[in-house]
Amino acid sequence: MPRLQVRTKTRQHEYKIAIGRGILSGAGKAARERFGSPSQRIAVISNRKVFSLYGPVLLRSLQSSGFATPHWLMRDGERYKSIQTAEEALNFLSKNGIERGDALIAMGGGVVGDLAGFVAATYLRGIPFIQVPTTLLAQIDSSVGGKTGVNLPTGKNLVGCFHQPDAVIVDIETLTTLPPRELVAGWCETIKQGAVGSMELFNQTTALLGKIDSRNVLISSKMEKLVAAHCAFKASIVAADERENVARRDRRSRRILNFGHTIGHALEAVTSYRRFRHGEAVGHGILVAGELSKNMGLLDESELELLRHGVSLCGPLPSAKDLDETAILNAIARDKKRARGYIQWVLLEGIGQPTIVDGKEIGQNLLKQSVRNSLR
Ligand SMILES: NC(=O)c1ccc[n+]([C@@H]2O[C@H](COP(=O)([O-])OP(=O)(O)OC[C@H]3O[C@@H](n4cnc5c(N)ncnc54)[C@H](O)[C@@H]3O)[C@@H](O)[C@H]2O)c1
Ligand SMILES: [Zn+2]
């Protein structure tokens, strides 16, 4: 089973990411190892869907390692990643007398992980927590890196804090129950990470993607290795730029993980978050950012072709053809990642060679044309 050690500088905090098949049943042992004997209780936050599938295994494992396991299930969906839900979760911890020596486990996709992480960061000014990600996106991206938070009615992820987990337990068997669209969305994020990571990570990703017609691929040792490679890449970026320093523009700054996201967020916004899963919108966003990179003379046609092929392997994306370019451009202008009034675009000079470009260096016509040419 691959194990990764993540070191972050600011808090001298180290944690392990364990990746494997069926390892959920070892969660109790892992928690005991991490927290030692004084820890008595582990509160579990999940949602009904995930908990009905994996709750019994997790609770049994924790209980057999001597933990009491109060649990609380939030409602399913992005719209419940809110301050109101966080307040309910905080009340649950408080009513159950959770103390600083206790801990919290978040089991679910990125929504549960972000919300429960935020709750762990703020309850009693921070208690230990373990991420048990159960979607592909959460396994390769959101569970690693310590960004936690909730949405406001005015925008996504506007409230939150950095709070690194104490361990991440990635059981790839949980991927077998994911709805197909959630898988497509997660795969698009793997293409994003490969594109900004390295040609090696990109090729490793597309090689496995070429075989995803067989569901057995999801529980293969190659899948285990791929998830581990993505976690290692994300962890390496996070370790060097934990808090996403806004002044950094180099190719290893945390911001490069936003490749495909400028257009992705705009597509989500112009369709009122109803048409695309986030990762699906990012799939389109990758194509536009790739096209723009080529049109600006940064990226070769042959590498753009690799990118297009990679996205096509992820599976079908909901069509974006009918969307109005001007509305998309207006939505970009409102993007919170604006810096000094301009958007910072993550573009590519090659696979594995991201570059951050100021929005003012990009002509509106070129941008419009790139959007028009790539949305399908
Ligand atoms: N913190 C970060 O660094 C970071 C990074 C990227 C994304 N995010 C956040 O992650 C969220 C998206 O996460 P997501 O894509 O995992 O969506 P999600 O958490 O909404 O999960 C998608 C759906 O899959 C269901 N599900 C989860 N695991 C399952 C399983 N094993 N079997 C069957 N169904 C399962 C969920 O109940 C849900 O209905 C967004 O809120 C985004 O902002 C955070
Ligand atoms: Zn994303």
CATH class of the largest domain: Mainly Alpha
Helical proportion, percent range:
40-55%
Largest sheet features:
7 strands, mixed
The mean pLDDT is 93
Which spans of ≥5 residues are poorly predicted at pLDDT below 50? none
Name every ligand kind in the structure.
nicotinamide-adenine-dinucleotide, zinc ion
CATH topology of the largest domain: Dehydroquinate synthase-like, alpha domain
Task: Tally the structural domains.
Answer: 2
Distance between the termini: 40 Å
Q: What are the key terms here?
A:
alpha/beta, Rossmann fold, 13 helices, seven-stranded mixed beta sheet, 376 residues, 45% helix, binds zinc ion, binds nicotinamide-adenine-dinucleotide, Dehydroquinate synthase-like, alpha domain
Q: What features would you describe in this structure?
A:
The protein is an alpha/beta fold. The chain folds into two domains: 175 residues, Rossmann fold (3-Layer(aba) Sandwich), CATH 3.40.50.1970; 186 residues, Dehydroquinate synthase-like - alpha domain (Dehydroquinate synthase-like, alpha domain, Up-down Bundle). It contains 13 helices and twelve strands. The strands form three sheets. The protein has a seven-stranded mixed beta sheet with strand order 1-2-9-6-5-3-4, sandwiched between helices. A hairpin with a 2-residue loop joins strand 10 and strand 11. Helix 5 runs parallel beside helix 6. The radius of gyration is 20 Å and the shape is globular. The model has no long low-confidence stretch (mean pLDDT 93).
